[in-house]
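Need tokens for this chain, all 512 residues.
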Amino acid sequence: MSTHLPTADAQDPESSARTARLREALLAADFTADGLLELLGAPAYAALARSETVPAVRATRGDGPLETLVRLFLLQRPVALPRARAALPVADCLADGWLVQEGDELRASVDVRPYGGPEGEDWWIVSDLGCAVGGAGGIRGDGDADRSQLVLGVGGASTTLAGLTVRRPVATALDLGTGSGIQALHAAQHATRVTATDLNPRALRIAALTLALSGAAPADLREGSLFEPVGQETYDLIVSNPPFVISPGARLTYRDGGMGGDDLCRTLVQQSAAHLNDGGYCQLLANWQHVAGEEWHDRLRSWVPRGCDAWIVQREVQDVTQYAELWLRDAGDHRAGDETYSARYDAWLDEFEAHKTKAVGFGWITLRKSGSDTPSITVEEWPHPVEQPLGESVVAHFARQDYLQATDDAALLAAHFRLADGVVQEQVGLPGSEDPEHVVLRQNRSMRRATKVDTVGAGFAGVCDGSLPAGRILDAIAQLVGEDPVLLRDRTPASIRTLVEQGFLEPVAAGD
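Here are the structure tokens for all 512 residues:
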């Protein structure tokens, strides 16, 4: 094995037929996400996702086709030729380079990992050997490919972005920094034309394999950095899981941006507006610096380009030592010896000190091309669990912002609202007390937000079923609690706006 990669030429009928036969063999053996779970069991399946292979090795001691495929493509173990022939069209796999023969044994040239699509599709994600999963254990890179050019498979960041992305039919989509091709694969299900770019030519070849093996239409693959490969072209959807790691230098193409600090993510965000069609979305993951003397909310607001609405969510913050240690382990530097590890650790801390970085935030950025002179920009911290997929929640967020911008307080009191599905009320107080200390509304869906409300807010939300305008509900509450209805109408719109903005209340047309 060396830098060899398989081929899957969508323009060559014979190559396409061989790829189709390989796909049929994988399906026939139940080499799918569900099939793996059934074979390995939940503990071994979860361990495999952490790059821990021992439980999977123990679970594949049989000689059935599925065990053979797991050993070949997931565990990268040699398999005897007769055993491989019982599971795969070996001649096709050798012709296209999926397998390499060494004497009487066969080895896989790449990692092929089953992946379940959002509608139950059976897909496969291709990556370099030993690179199916990154993270704290460090990638292995079992082949002889240049380590800096290695292409990873599916990790938590990939699946997070896939779940966040708005999945509505579009004419054009761009996957910027495609890597193994997972975002392009998703986009191919709802975009007429998909363009995928990457600075790493090896990633483009692997993305093509992922698409072909999964039976998706081929993407327009282009080599280059950021938006350079697409010129002045515009898209309805841009997605990117960029090399966002804030690091000294650019040792590893798949993660290191090669610009100072968080400049790569900032540049991507700021340049995206020029490549979005009206109403289009740009969605990406990013890291950003928490700089001494600056408010991180304000830093990120300054990134948002003119004419775009934005929703930015900070999911996690790490101090600079935690952050450096995480990515040193990711690169396997913890196995390089104490002296080398210490020198590289020092280099990370020098980088942070030079940029006055005290911590690093991680999160999601969504832009919507609105062309508005008064854009809606929401920057918030939400480190709590959420319910994926969130694509429709992203659409709903911007729809709520549009509604609130277009609705003054008088119109708000004349409007009808309905309590969103999955909202529950919690009362917190001392046992046996007559009144709660406070009331919390909590969502069990989507962002799973929670917000404190007073007794008026709780009562208002509880009776919102769309049948009465907000003002009439407040008048009734004022009578019940003995409050002046005019004063209650004056002070309540701000609370209603908060409940609408956070998705607890939904505006409805009168009579619906």
